[in-house]
Amino acid sequence: MMMETADGNTMRVRFKDYDFFVPKDCAGKTAVIQGIAFNDVTSVAELRHYAEDAKKSKEEIEKITEPEKSPAFEAEGVIIYE
After folding, report:
1. Which of 26, 37, 48, 53 maximizes the CB count within 10 A of its CB?
2. Reading across the β-sheet that carries 10-15, which strands appear in turn?
3. Which residues are 54's β-sheet partners?
4. How far apart are the C-alpha atoms of 55 and 72, rounded to whole Å?
């Protein structure tokens, strides 16, 4: 899940041990997450996998050639407000 932070940046949120997921229709809703924040490096292979999941074109996927450094979060729990 990608989440906008309070300062307007975007942060990837992963779910601890993939034990749970959030509904796909929660975009734009307020969420409270509990877990651990850390700096992350996402590999080219993983970025391409995310692009495939997002139904990006083959050309867009092939343009991904560098790993991405960014803040990330491993969530132990998420509450989504309507």
Report:
1. 48
2. 2-4, 10-15, 68-81, 30-42
3. none
4. 22
Report the C-alpha dihedral over residues 17, 20, 26, 28, rounded to 10 degrees: -30
- Cα 72 from chain centroid? 8
The Cα 34–Cα 73 span in angstroms is 9
SS3 (DSSP) at 61: helix
Express each pLDDT in 5-17 by its tens digit: 888 888 888 888 7
Backbone region of residue 2 per phi and psi (left: phi > 0; alpha: psi in -120 to 50; beta: other values): beta
Beta strands of the chain (E only): which ranges? 2-4, 10-15, 30-42, 68-81
Give per-residue pLDDT as tens, 16-64.
Answer: 877 777 777 888 888 888 999 898 899 999 999 999 999 999 999 999 9
